[in-house]
Amino acid sequence: MSDTILTLTIDGQPVSGLATETILQIARENKIDIPTLCYLEGLSAVGSCRLCMVEIEGSPKLHPACVTLIQEGMVVTTQTERLQGYRRNIVQLLFAERNHVCSVCVSNGHCELQELAHKLGVDHIAFPGCYPELEVDASHRRFVLDHNRCVLCTRCVRVCAEIEGAHTWDVKNRGMRSRIVADLDTPWGDSATCTGCGKCVHVCPTGALSEKGKSVAEMLKKRPSLPYLVANRTEERQ
Amino acid sequence: MSQITIEPVSRIEGHAAIRLFLDDTGQVRDARFQVTQVRGFEQFVVGRPFSEMPSLTARICGICPVSHELASAKACDQLLAVAIPPTATKLRCLLNLAQLVQSHALSFFYLSGPDLLLGMDHPPETRNFFGLAAADPQFARDGIRIRQFGQQAIERLAGRRIHPSWVVPGGVNSPLTAANREAILADLPSIKTLVSAHLDRFKQTLDGHAEAIGVFANFPSMFLGLVNEEGTLEHYQGRLRFIDAGGAPVGTDLDPSDYQQVIGEAVEPWTYLKFPYYRPLGYPEGMYRVGPLARLNLAARCGTELADRELALFRELATGPVLSMFHAHYARLIETLYAVERIEELLADPQILDQRIRAEAGVNSLEGIGVTEAPRGTLMHHYRVNEDGLIQWINLIIATGHNNLAMQRGILQAARHFLTGTTLREGLLNRIEAVIRTFDPCLSCSTHAVGSMPMIVELIGPDGAILDHLRR
Ligand code: SF4
Fold first, then answer.
1. Does the interface ipTM go beyond 0.85?
2. Which of B57, B60, B165, B357 to mutate: most A Cβ within 10 Å?
3. Is B173 part of the contact surface with chain A (CB cutoff 8 Å)?
């Protein structure tokens, strides 16, 4: 079953893939761009940011491309005006929820949220800003967590649990009150589990996690090649 | 298709409000100059990592972001407790000088040019840079060219003209390339000639400005500025020196980190801008001035050939320090010439291309003070951080603050001279505006290069009644 090849169309283009693959994977293999924020190759997909929603013919709902497996004969559309409108709204809501001041942010010019806004043509935030009063946790010797810039994508949580195996990060509270926390809500610098590997910093799409001492626009992230890390570890265990 | 809406329009708040108080005999007893200043900066940076401060504070001012960045980075250097690489110091000096050129050109050619060339009674509709460009296109072109030189030099060093984020705690974040050095050097000779020519032209017009020279904040006061070990003109490092109205040093030169020993800050309920004063003399007697005029009065020499020749002539204006703020225009031109010469010297130094430009360190000290000479005068950044490097408290003293007492006094002097009767006339407004401009204050209103300064003037009788007011 897993090596059965299925055929489908995405944006009118005939494509094919394995039954274990998602719409997002097949789209990317075929250079069809679907925006994502919480998805990162090599980590489990959680489908939480909702930016990758696509339309599937015959279904009244929208489907997250990162967690929807392909099916034979599927007709997928990724770029309708409706979808783009939703994506723009999502990005605007992310900006409105916390304090994003790009011009003085360590990630200015190298930020996935900023790039998304740019790509989607978001030049306005139609929603009133929440301007929450949020802290900066600079207690770690080498890294800084700035909740003002966090979009709650949980890439840091997953990379730490799934790849590093430390599971330092988690999420407390719910909804808009959600916050990334280290261990059981301790200052990062006091964390007993953090190994200081820095993977969370480098998978973070925004300026929420950065290296200490970086000035504005200086935080360039080196995305670790996660599938490669995973493959090497699997081999070692065998 | 896309629309950009910027609200609220803060420039509208850049109105300068001036209140003139009359006594029983109809004489001007007091003058108050009040501005809506950038507020809240001291509050909203609390909790931010110190490494953001150079860029955060650069947002205070659109004209002199570089000055704030430099003072801020120097304060941050102290938090790191490191000595930054010598090339980093030189590159920062270069940046500061380029900033001086562009800012002085803006002040002289764009903002004061219309008053100086067209005259203070020229109709306000055309007494602006466009009117000036129509009347004397070459003057306007030269001004644009000189300012452009400074801005391009900033861009060649820092990558962006406005709000560059090149200056960082510990140094700068990229070295100067040989190509950029050549590009700046190539422009230098023509700029030097231009500045010299305008300096000559300005000197020839001085006689025509005798009245303004006489009453534009022309009074004895102390002066404050940085001086280096050689006693030559300095804008980036050195010690703080006060001189009195006779030119004699007041006290010994101070480490800038000890500024609080001698500078107090008074608060008045009617304005947001604080009033720094020289502590030993108290408030308001401890009035002093900073800026180009102060720097030339303080320095033994400029330290460059052409500027020193000009300084010698400048000194002939008075036996001691030059006291009239009108001559700040003159001082600005001399400083511009100095900056161009000094940029050439710095670029000729082979070490300027060195790749070692940044000292890396964490927080090693919980308090840092950075002082530089901005185009408008001494600029002080003072920070306290916690062990994690998050800002706990800051204090900024900007040049316009240092000059606040002297500006009030200058307006009073001009008002006494030019006010007749109990009605306000446009001519008085123009002259008060011109006095304010000699201080080149970094208020949002001074950025109104086109048109006149938005201003409200009220004339208040001895009983507190408003006798007249003018607004524009
Ligand atoms: S995290 Fe990205 S979007 Fe947010 S302020 Fe920083 S650069 Fe801007």
1. yes
2. B165
3. yes
Domain B41-402, CATH: 1.10.645.10
B3: which chain A residues are within 8 Å (Cβ-Cβ)?
124
> Which fold is adopted by the domain A5-79?
Ubiquitin-like (UB roll) (3.10.20)
Helix axes B137-158, B327-348, angle to 10 degrees: 40
**A103–B59 C-beta distance less than 8 A:** yes
Report DSSP letters for B55-85, one per residue. HHHHTT-SS-HHHHHHHHHHHHHHHHT-PPP
Give the count of Cβ contacts less than 8 A between chain A and B: 59
Residue B297 vs residues B302, B315, B334: alpha-carbon distances, Å: 11, 8, 12
Q: What is the CATH number of domain A85-226?
A: 3.30.70.20
Q: Give every CB contact of residue B407 below 8 A, 6+ residues apart in sequence.
A: B33, B217, B400, B435, B436, B439, B441
Are B388 and A139 a contacting pair at CB < 8 A? yes
Region(s) of chain A under CATH 3.30.70.20: 85-226
pLDDT digits (tens), chain B, 472 positions: 233 332 332 222 345 678 889 998 888 999 888 765 545 778 889 999 999 999 988 877 666 789 999 999 999 999 999 999 999 999 999 999 999 999 999 989 988 898 899 988 888 788 888 899 999 999 999 999 999 999 999 999 998 766 668 999 999 999 999 999 999 999 999 999 999 999 999 999 999 999 999 999 999 999 999 999 998 999 999 999 999 999 999 999 999 999 999 999 998 887 777 899 999 999 999 999 999 999 999 999 999 999 999 999 999 999 999 999 999 999 999 999 999 999 999 999 999 999 999 999 999 999 999 999 999 999 999 999 999 999 999 999 989 889 999 999 999 999 899 887 778 887 787 888 888 888 887 654 343 334 456 677 888 888 888 888 887 6
Contact B241, B225 (CB under 8 A): yes
Q: Prior bond to B54 cis, omega within 30? A: no
Please report, for chain B, the start and end positions of each structural domain, with discontinuous segments joined by +.
2-37+407-471, 41-402
A contacts of B364 (beta carbons < 8 Å): none
- Give the pTM: 0.91
Structure tokens at B258: 């000890």
The answer to whether the CB atoms of B52 and A216 lie below 8 A apart is yes
Contact residues, chain A, for B51 at CB < 8 Å: 106, 212-215
How far apart CA B219 and CA B244 sit, in angstroms, is 12
Chain A CB within 8 Å of residue B65 CB = no
8 Å CB contact of B168 and A189: no
Task: Enumerate residues lining ligand 1, CB below 6 A.
Answer: A 100-102, 105, 107-108, 111, 113-114, 149, 206-207
Cα radius of gyration rounded to whole Å, chain A:
19
